[in-house]
Description:
Largest sheet: 2 strands, antiparallel
Helix content: 55-70%
Order of helices and strands: HHHHHHHHHHHHHHHEEHHHHH
Oligomer: single chain
Number of strands: 2
Number of helices: 20
Distance between the termini: 20 Å
Shape: globular
Low-confidence stretches: 389-422
Mean pLDDT: 89
Strand order of the largest sheet: 1-2
Radius of gyration: 22 Å
Amino acid sequence: xxxxxxxxxxxxxxxxxxxxxxxTSILFFVWTAGLSVPAASFLYDNSPKxxxxxxxxxxxxxxxxxxxxxxxxxxxxxxxxxxxxxFREIRNESLSGDLLLPLVIIFVLVVKWIEFTKWDxxxxxxxFYLFLGITVYRxxxxxxxxEGQSIWLPGNSLSDxxxxxxxxxxxxxxxxxxxxxxxxxxxxxxxxxxxxxxxxAALLGIWVCQSRxxxxxLIVFAVLDILPKFSMKIIRAPFIAYTATIILALPLSYLAGxxxxxxxxxxxxxxxxxxxxxxxEKTEQIWLGMQPFVFHRGHQVLGNHNSYNxxxxxxxxxxxGLVVLLLLGYIGKLTLRADLSNGQMxxxxxFFAILMQSFMEDxxxxxxxxxxxxxxxxxxxxxxxxxxxxxxYDESEIPGHIESRDFEDxxxxxxxxxxxxx
Length: 422
């Protein structure tokens, strides 16, 4: 019976890792192919359904691994959904809007439960490198600049190549961050070196397509990731950085939008100013959110172009406060004991780079980006440096105990998380 249980659990885990890789590949295909491709356009239009179904399937495959605080987060998803659904008419929101935050929470939990073997992580690296290579190739071969000008000039005026240049920049940024995180998870310096060409290639591609938000975010990540990790752990640098960013995000956005002199965000200040004026028209909108915000600039129809404003748009101050508590609670649990592997630090800095880019884009609240960016945050819960192998525990107290020795060659210590969470 125990052998059958082990086989079923291993099969469930492999299915989960494969499904997650397939989901991320589908979404990167959308950005790499472009919305002019019918298949990509179809996937983009139906991304909320696709992602919701995929996350629920992953939840079904892994729910048996839930322990302790996991049930609190699962309960929180139900309460959050019911609360905002109750005020749906006031907010003039859709079902997909109400589901977004609960799905993010469930997704992070599910990725935490999945045990990624070294072969799984190697496959993820290979797939991400494939998409990075195709995207960089398309940038340098399909970009059109006036004759006689260099593609390297920062003054080139570009709006799109095969898709919006900010989207291309976001895709390159996310691929570089994922490659860096997964390479670092092997805790081997020579595997970690695989991240270097990815970051350089992404940096060059982002520079050419003029995506400033992605460029700043990637530079911030590169600087933070090369700083001595031991010192960063001791001073709890990730927690300080996350706390400062998430708490100051709305005040900074409001001040930038209301100022006539600030022009650091390439004209997005006008959008933010109009958003805050619209939001303040009704008190209930400030607390609970409002209908999707739209800004008209000539023939352009634009959204918030700021993830923090988007969260406020969707859920109001009540929802934004919940996001702050959930995010800082998660980061605090990982970092405040100053006990992190190098791989975990890289993933934390990678998602922090996404927080930087989110001042310019709606990445945090966009369904097609959900599995791609929150995978960075969720993978920070995994540890592969073998540290937990030295922690003694009573195997008989572990529900549904798995004899990890049976899979020792496959996991390279990836079952170490069972000792902490199971």
